[in-house]
Design brief:
Keywords: Antibiotic, Antimicrobial, Immunity, Innate immunity, Secreted, Signal. The protein has 201 residues and is mainly beta. The protein is 9% helix and 32% strand. It is built from two helices and ten strands. The chain binds 2-acetamido-2-deoxy-beta-D-glucopyranose (6 copies).
Length: 201
């Protein structure tokens, strides 16, 4: 009898606590470590990260693409820091792109300016996600930023060390009037979307 109860409990717990179905919580921006499973995989992830522009001027933005090689990912979370900052203090600003507005949400990472993280909305399998990241206005020429992402394939299977660099060069368009970064008014909807599931196991 007791074993039946235990089985039912485990089944319920597994259903309720399968990671963060509604996106990574704000307090995991620095480590990007999902609070579940057996720990990160050390193998090469079956996922890729790329940026449309590896060199951007301060305040400028680059488009970031996450893609699967063969197996889709259920979850992801990304944050950006100065390359040399081992504490991974989060900087810059993510924004969503129109085609992915319904499957991504911005995160206000703890201890930094708003929108310094981005994560999934649901566990639906994903093969591609595209969003933008803009460099801080104050970034000086030559500084390097790392955009880091965690990919979650399943409760127990995830990789935390994907990284892509963005280098600041303020001479790129010194002769042009570069357009200012457009920030989406839709991001005000994020507060409504952000629901964090706590797992007590
Ligand atoms: C910062 O990011 C690096 C690279 O992903 C990671 O190895 C390290 O554990 C992170 N540091 C902290 C304090 O989370
Ligand atoms: C995203 O960044 C790209 C490259 O800088 C830019 O062309 C595009 O307009 C940006 N999109 C949004 C929605 O901010
Ligand atoms: C996002 O959701 C809204 C409301 O359901 C819908 O009108 C819109 O077409 C969706 N956008 C995309 C890119 O799927
Ligand atoms: C990122 O930039 C740092 C510092 O310039 C460099 O050491 C590192 O190899 C770069 N990493 C990648 C993945 O480009
Ligand atoms: C930049 O904008 C200013 C003011 O709008 C204008 O006077 C100037 O000619 C522009 N420069 C270029 C290179 O377009
Ligand atoms: C994130 O910060 C912005 C600006 O301060 C705020 O409007 C928004 O409600 C915050 N979002 C969440 C989910 O706390």
């Amino acid at each position: 009898m007791a074993s039946i109860c235990v089985s039912i409990f485990i089944l319920m717990a597994a259903t309720l606590c399968a990671g963060y179905p509604a996106g990574g919580p704000y307090y995991s921006c620095k480590g990007l470590l999902p609070g579940h499973g057996d720990g990160p995989k050390k193998t090469a992830p079956p996922y890729r990260m790329s940026v449309s522009q590896a060199t951007v001027e301060s305040g400028g933005s680059t488009s970031v693409t996450l893609s699967s090689i063969d197996v889709p990912f259920m979850g992801f979370m990304c944050a950006a820091s100065k390359y040399e900052d081992e504490a991974n203090n989060t900087v810059g600003e993510f924004s969503r792109t129109d085609d992915y507005v319904n499957i991504t949400q911005l995160v206000n990472c703890s201890g930094s300016t708003p929108y310094t993280g981005i994560t999934h909305v649901s566990r639906n399998p994903k093969n591609t996600v595209v969003f933008n990241w803009s460099v801080p206005d104050s970034a000086s020429s030559g500084s390097v930023f790392k955009i880091r992402c965690t990919f979650v394939q399943s409760f127990n299977v995830y990789w935390i060390d994907s990284l892509v660099n963005v280098t600041v060069d303020n001479k790129i368009s010194s002769n042009e009037n570069s357009s200012s970064v457009q920030t989406s008014t839709l991001r005000n909807l994020i507060a409504c979307l952000l629901t964090v599931f706590y797992c007590f196991l």
